[in-house]
Batch of 2 targets.
Target 1
Amino acid sequence: MTTMKAIVIGSGGREHAIAWTLASSPDISEVVCAPGNGGTATEPKCRNVSVSVSETSEVVRVCSAELSGLSDGSFVVVGPEDPLAAGLADRLAQAGIRTVGPLSRGAQLEASKDVAKRFMDKYGVACAKSATFTEHADAIAEIRKHSGPIVVKADGLAAGKGVVVAPDADAAVDAVRDFMVESTLGAAGRKVVVEEYLEGEEISILAAVSVTEELAAAGKAAIVPFVTARDHKRRLDGAQGPNTGGMGAIAPATGVSEETLARFRSDILEPTLRGLIAEKFDYRGFIFFGVMVTKDGPKLLEYNVRLGDPETQAVLPLMDFDFSKMCAAIIDGDVSSFDFAWKEGVCCAPVAVSRGYPGPYEKGHAIAFDHKKIEGAGAKVFIAGATVDQRRSPRGIGEPQWPEGTLITTGGRVLAASAVGKDLDEARSRAYSALEAVSFDGMSFRRDIGLPGAAVSKGF
Ligand code: AMP
Ligand code: GLY
């Protein structure tokens, strides 16, 4: 019997999807979710362990304890960016633990917009023109040279609140004042990047990365992109309302031509790979390219050093290979020869959110599931913001998926219903039937995930 364990760091919908996918591998005997959530709590082969993800030493201690005595290929997958930027992968490597996730030097590509833009410029990655400022007066002077929409980005990690796509110079100046004078984001906003506004439709390209000096010398350093995906950032149907962490995703993204993909490879992926090699990064994990498809071709908006949320919930169900074997290939440097095969069809994953989201939102509501209906729809519900309340009995209709108690909402984004269909219509119809079989007080969701125009930002 195999005794290979996988440990998944994080507590969102992305981590539930990763844990569920790993648990389906015959190679994996147990998935430890640190800390996981109400969804991973009773997933077969999964077990939650309590840990604070921001406490690097504690995470390393928990991982070491979980993996001690196991002499096989057990490994850790780090879900979110903050622990990577804080050096979790470095500390795990020092402890001899096999880890999917870049060392902190590579993680700066997401943690600092300035570092990312310098890297893009240095290696000729197609992107928006930009300049970085440490003095607010200089940033404002630059903004005043332009008319029309312009983008202001806080340099540091700001949980999705650090980018303002301003319709005009006045709004951009307000953003600079908020970040640099009022310090609304603390240290993250001390430096800002002022960037050209790009028009187009966005796609998310997640990729497996294996780059080290040794792999580069052997000609085996590689970035292998997954099927494309599209997030839907605005809160309301028709791409209206405030920006959110993501209201749903589809994969593959619609309307992406072969030519766009070829340009993505030549103008974004290949220069990025050359840069990772030239900078001598030890980067074994995931890169998520946030790309705007403009009339002049695809341009990189940002690097994320992890998988996307909710893109992961739409991409992983299309994998026709063993995720745990891919993780081993990332760690061992075999990504360039790994057989990435994808299922035919489309996956749609709309997200249900709490009343109030993305502002202050309600918590503590019990979630009811009609499991038979969800199963009948051929969908999988990935939990993002909910926990098991052991004091309450299950509220599911039919077989309870959460036998230990009721699932209680704890987050703004609560869950995603993810379904694969032969085409977008079928995937949408399955995913939405599953969402209709879930209910909690104040629940709402967008009804247009995947439809034409649903992800195009309007409003200027
Ligand atoms: P980022 O964190 O850099 O991806 O920015 C968050 C979101 O802001 C992106 O997903 C885009 O929707 C938008 N955005 C960022 N940069 C630009 C840009 N240069 N032009 C237009 N929209 C942008
Ligand atoms: N879906 C956007 C992100 O994960 O950052």
Note: The chain has a mean pLDDT of 93.
Target 2
Amino acid sequence: MTVYGTRPEAIKVAPVIKALEASDDFESVTVVTGQHREMLDQVNELFGIVPDHDLNIMSHGQTLAQIFARVIEGLDPILEKEEPAAVIVQGDTSTSTAAALAAFYRQIPVIHLEAGLRSGDISSPFPEEANRRITTQIAALHLAPTEVSRANLLAEGVDDSTIVVTGNTVIDALLMTASKEVHFDDPALEALAASGRRILLLTTHRRENWGAAMLGVGRALAQIALEFPDVEIVLPLHRNPLVREALLPALNNIANVTTIEPLNYGQFTRLMSLSYLIVTDSGGIQEEAPSLGKPVLVLRDSTERPEGVAAGTTRLIGTCQEDVEHQIRQLLSSQELYDRMAGSTNPYGNGDAAQSSLHALRSNTDRRSANPGNMQTTTFGTTRK
Ligand code: UD1
Ligand code: UDP
């Protein structure tokens, strides 16, 4: 059973669900919590995934506690009914950790996809760093995207035999999507694509950036728009009203700023490919951009994705208005710096992470799980109640 609820989880579990569906030896059950609504549905639609269960929990202004409680309460009877051999959760969202806990309470083995990411700062990203650490404590199998994430798990005492390095399934999703010809629904984006102008793609949504930080980012980008009239800033807005309230006052009504609704993943992938530079606080985009050879300026002070920084493609710039302006200005003005960042390689995988994950699931089918939290021993392929 795969349980997910937000856009990034949906993108990253899609290749795994597709692989499970295509296999002869697994029966796939999908549960969406609906922590996100439109942004989640967009992804399922694109990948042709029709969830078996939908908890439909989203409300505007939802608190972390509300999401957590609704997921646990909604998922429990489904776990009872479906009796899955194992539950797959992805990453670090509230859906992910709540679903892991609900499964753990029923002594169903938890498979953690994208395990072992650590920023080292419990308050950033908030609450995701805590979520992923909690999930690590109760997971039976840790599917780590890179050797760095594996090392993080080992440093915390996780048993090596329960960790498999698979690559990140986001690269599978990206390659599945980027190989298709895609047209923008929005004629303005088609015109921009044809114009050959430099595109600065901006996305921001992180909880710790809500409020003053995001206001500053908006002002910084408005200043850049003024200084570089040849550059078009494109901003697919997160659905969260708080994000819109913070960004739009500074960026509305500027000739070379285009604000749009979230794009479906196919169109967003094309927009990333067309972009000159990406400025973001997104986790997934930090992983995708290196594959596309796009420099990324990250609106955060720390990252759980240091591989991109080490490879030279991503750079942490924080959210201070002056710093954001300075770093963007530098990259838009220096061809040498730009070429150095754009020329780096992708450290996050080569597109076979979903198959590696299935392989790891198979190899663990008859193996006793070594749970650090050590409940009673569980065996994959058997549901214990
Ligand atoms: C969540 C995740 C975050 C992930 C992000 C991806 C947690 C704690 N946070 O944050 O890790 O990076 O998703 O985008 O799990 N909304 C809609 N429609 C949608 C989606 C969101 O209207 O399709 C609005 C709702 O008003 C909702 C609000 O956005 O209440 C916030 O959504 P929420 O899932 O709580 O937080 P995100 O910031 O999206
Ligand atoms: N994305 C998308 N449409 C958009 C913006 C982003 O499909 O308009 C994709 C992006 O390519 C990446 C994922 O959404 O795969 C990232 O989601 P988000 O930034 O919301 O969450 P995070 O990765 O930070 O958890």
Note: Residues 7-8, 11, 170, 203, 205, 236, 262-263, 265, 268, 282-285, 288 surround uridine-5'-diphosphate (ligand 2) (CB under 6 Å).
